[in-house]
């Protein structure tokens, strides 16, 4: 698997990914608001602009990557690395968000994506990475722990209990 920056080459696969998640009632975690965009080109512009300190559209600069299986060039997941933490991200969201297609789960892709993203965090100068997940998301908690995550605490965000993990790089 490789992590690639979003491009027009993957527009159809990203739109299919979005459709699949919405049809399944799943959350598009780590997709940088993909669910809000009907037009791929507008989402792509948003994502690429948000990598630049001067043109970012959100409160923190972030990088989005497509997790693509090399054997068949299939998009299996999307991962977002936030370069810094604002108050909300510190409490509930963390440095990294990610999602994996339903039919590709339980195959180790999330672990592989997270390990690769942690390497990118090192390159960005982030030495301590915060990851969060809903307390009932056992698969995500296992992935985070596998990659070195240490549970700091649990916090309530509205009606959801959120676990906060730190990984030292």
TrEMBL record:
Residues 1-169 form the N-acetyltransferase domain. PANTHER family: ACETYLTRANSFERASE (PTHR39173:SF1). CDD domains: NAT_SF (cd04301). PROSITE patterns: GNAT. It comes from the Bacteria. This is Acetyltransferase.
């Amino acid at each position: 698997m490789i992590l690639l920056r979003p491009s027009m080459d993957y527009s159809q696969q990203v739109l299919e990914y979005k459709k699949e998640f919405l049809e399944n009632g799943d959350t598009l975690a780590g997709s940088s608001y993909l669910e809000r965009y009907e037009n791929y080109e507008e989402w792509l512009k948003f994502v690429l602009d948000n990598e630049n300190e001067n043109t970012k559209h959100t409160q923190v600069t972030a990088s989005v990557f497509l997790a693509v299986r090399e054997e068949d060039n299939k998009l299996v997941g999307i991962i977002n690395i936030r370069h810094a933490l604002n108050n909300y991200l510190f409490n509930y969201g963390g440095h990294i968000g990610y999602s994996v297609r339903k039919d590709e789960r339980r195959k180790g892709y999330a672990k592989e994506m997270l390990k690769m993203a942690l390497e990118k965090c090192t390159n960005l100068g982030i030495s301590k990475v915060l990851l969060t997940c809903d307390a009932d998301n056992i698969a995500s908690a296992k992935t985070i722990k596998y990659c070195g995550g240490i549970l700091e605490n649990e916090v309530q965000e509205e009606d959801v209990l959120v676990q906060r993990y730190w990984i030292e790089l």
